Amino acid sequence: MSTQDVRPRRLRRAIESKKLARQEYSSYRQFIRDHYDGFAGKLTGFTGLVTGHAALAGRLIRPRAFDVRGCKRILDAACGNGRYSKFLLRWADRDAFITSFDLSQRMLKRARRRLHSPRVSQVAADLMRLPYPDGYFDAVVCGWVLEHLPDPRPGLRELARVMQSGGKILLMATEDTLTGSVCSRMWHCRTYNRADLRRTCQECGLRWERPHFFTKLHRLFKLGGIIVELRRE
Ligand SMILES: C[S@@+](CC[C@H](N)C(=O)[O-])C[C@H]1O[C@@H](n2cnc3c(N)ncnc32)[C@H](O)[C@@H]1O
Fold first, then answer.
1. 87: which of 34, 65, 116, 117 is 20 to 30 A away, CA to CA?
2. Cα angle for residues 209, 95, 107 (degrees, 5° grid)
3. pTM recorded for the entire structure
4. What does the pLDDT read at residue 6?
């Protein structure tokens, strides 16, 4: 390996947050809950607008991208302020229900304020232990939460457990790129290597079907993080 390959990796590692790696998961989890309950969570509404992510969410949840038409039980995992649920509501069938959960009660409150819909229900829960029966959902959106787990496997296995066989999932995770490392530092999370995550998903019974990108520009420059459609085997 050349020094040219090693230097960016060192820089990425130097920038990346070490918070998750350096403490017990139980205290990290408490920290993250407080983090999103507090000012950082409040800020997600503002940062979503400024970075364009609130609108870009709509580029992913639509018929030509992650198509939820025909799905009746849809899960928004770690829904945050509900920016993905908003587009799920827009495109899902009228008789479809959207179930969402988050670790942070305040984020759920923010999502409720945004959505105002009897077709969406919210509950506080941890991705590592979901309060839903086996095979319940036919579609899942899991955005930018896997990076808050020390090991993705328990979370991915839980998602696979609550999904119907053949169900689809839109998974988004912070990638081990320079911009990913900056995000990791800002949001106190880890990053994932795309090839490693692909192997892990496969191990958990989630087949890697196709990558998605917010825009053509994101596709061209491989930006925006890991966004992939998976299929429950
Ligand atoms: C970066 S935000 C993403 C929110 C939303 N999915 C989106 O893309 O707009 C991460 C969310 O994950 C939640 N979270 C972190 N760890 C979690 C866990 N173990 N179980 C459930 N939610 C968790 C946080 O409270 C926060 O709302």
1. 34
2. 70
3. 0.95
4. 65
CATH number of 3-232: 3.40.50.150
- Report whether residue 107 contacts ligand 1, using a CB cutoff of 6 Å: yes
**Tens-digit pLDDT profile for residues 4-38:** 556 788 999 999 999 999 999 999 999 999 999 99
Classified as helix, coil or strand, 115 is helix
Q: Rounded to an integer, what distance in angstroms lies between the CA atom of residue 169 and that of residue 173?
A: 13
Best residue for ligand 1 mutational test, from 49, 120, 145 (most atoms within 8 Å of Cβ): 145
Model confidence pLDDT, tens digit, residues 90-100: 999 999 999 99
pLDDT score of 214: 97
How many other CB atoms sit within 10 Å of the CB of residue 51? 10
Give the residue carrying structure tokens 């507090």.
38
Mutate to test the pocket of ligand 1, among 102, 108, 128, 170 (most ligand atoms within 8 A of CB): 102
Ligand 1 centroid distance, CA of 127 (Å): 9
